[in-house]
Inverse folding.
C-alpha cells in the first residue's frame, strides 16, 4: 500500500476515535511501561494525530500513552512548540498545555509540552514505535493535570 494511502487509512480510523474534553466514563489510567515494542501506559510513542479541523489532514507526532479504554490506547499529544509564547491564543481556542521537558522521543533533545484538553483514543495497530518511557513523577503530574482539565 502506498504511504499516502496508509496514512489516510490510519487518519480515517483515528478521526472517529478522538475525544475532546470530559467523557461520560473515566479512562482506565495506569502507569505500566514495559520495553516490549508494544505501546504501554507511561510510554511516549509515535502515532498519526489528525488536526483539530477534522479535515483529514494531520501529523505523525509523539503521544504519551496514559491508559486504555477497552482495547484502545488513551493518549495525550506532545509538541515541541513553546505554547507559553502564544498562551492567550491557545486559551482562546480552549487548548491547554503543560511543560513535559526532554526525553528520548525527540532525537534533537527539544523540550516538549503535553496537550491536556484533548484525549486521544488510538488503535494499538496504528502506533508505529516506542519513543521512550516517561518517569513516574512526570507521568503522575501530567495525568493529574489532565484529570483537572477534562473533569474525569
Amino acid at each position: 500500500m502506498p504511504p499516502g494511502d496508509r496514512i489516510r487509512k490510519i487518519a480515517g480510523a483515528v478521526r472517529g476515535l478522538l475525544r475532546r474534553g470530559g467523557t461520560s466514563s473515566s479512562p482506565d489510567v495506569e502507569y505500566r511501561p514495559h520495553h516490549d515494542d508494544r505501546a504501554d501506559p507511561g510510554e511516549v510513542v509515535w502515532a498519526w494525530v489528525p488536526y483539530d479541523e477534522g479535515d483529514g489532514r494531520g501529523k505523525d507526532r509523539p503521544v504519551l500513552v496514559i491508559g486504555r479504554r477497552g482495547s484502545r490506547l488513551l493518549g495525550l499529544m506532545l509538541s515541541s512548540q513553546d505554547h507559553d509564547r502564544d498562551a492567550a491564543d491557545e486559551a482562546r481556542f480552549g487548548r491547554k498545555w503543560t511543560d513535559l521537558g526532554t526525553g528520548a522521543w525527540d532525537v534533537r533533545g527539544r523540550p516538549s509540552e503535553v496537550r491536556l484538553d484533548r484525549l486521544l483514543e488510538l488503535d494499538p495497530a496504528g502506533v508505529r514505535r516506542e519513543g521512550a518511557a516517561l518517569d513516574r513523577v512526570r507521568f503522575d503530574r501530567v495525568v493529574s493535570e489532565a484529570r483537572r482539565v477534562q473533569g474525569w
User: Anything to note?
Assistant: The beta strands are 19-20, 28-29, 43-50, 58-69, 72-79, 97-101, 112-115, 118-122, 129-133.
